[in-house]
Amino acid sequence: MHAWQVVFSAPKHGNSEQEWEDGAAAAPGDAATGRGPRFAVADGATQGFGSARWALRLVEGFVGQGAGGVDEAPELADEPLYRWLCRTQDRWRHDPVLAHATDLQLYKLETVGSFATFLGCEFADLSGPRPRWSAVALGDTVLFHVRGDGLVARFPPIPVRGFGFNPDGLPTGRGALEDVVGRMLFAEGDLRDGDVVYLATDAVADWVLRADERDGAALWALLAGLDHPEAFRVLVDDLRRSEEMVNDDVTLMRVSVGVSGPEHLVVCL
Q: Which pTM value belongs to this model?
């Protein structure tokens, strides 16, 4: 089977594209190492410093697109994740974009820092007898596994209306890192031809859970049919105006799984 993804995103209403503080990244499998395709989404804290760069470092490093390349991508276990996060913190502190900060900003970098909710996922055995996904998460960025017009699994298992309560996050500060890694959650599930996996930051995930409760079949048909970034932005604008979605940075990654792969390549200019 094959896996292919598309990412939809929008900054807070009233903010510019450069003020989007989420992160999203994906990478194909690596035959040399036996690693499957990887996907990651992160949500940087608005009240932190350098949050957008922290979210970017996390997602790129997890999928193997960071400074360390594929060798940087950690295994999904406590100890490898801890070592990877230590390296990622060091790279964030020496980020060339942050190097041009003012003295006050550098002070905030060391004393305030940032944190980000995080969700990383890897597909395995897509050509074998048991295709499956494995994921690691901290906070309220959520994976939704959909089969047909029904929700098979969500991870982490945040309840409907369970958002907005100071979620856990991966910090830029070294002191609490070991304890934070110990609170990361792990899950896995089997994949079939035609399945779709979504990775969503909190504002989208909150709305998805409530919409699934009302009419899951209509929700999943709507999200599966999104075919252009502007269509997603129109949807988000409508939901914000009706107060069905809070005004926050939003990111939705859709990963489709199929035997034949996509029939068309669409390039949005």
A: 0.91
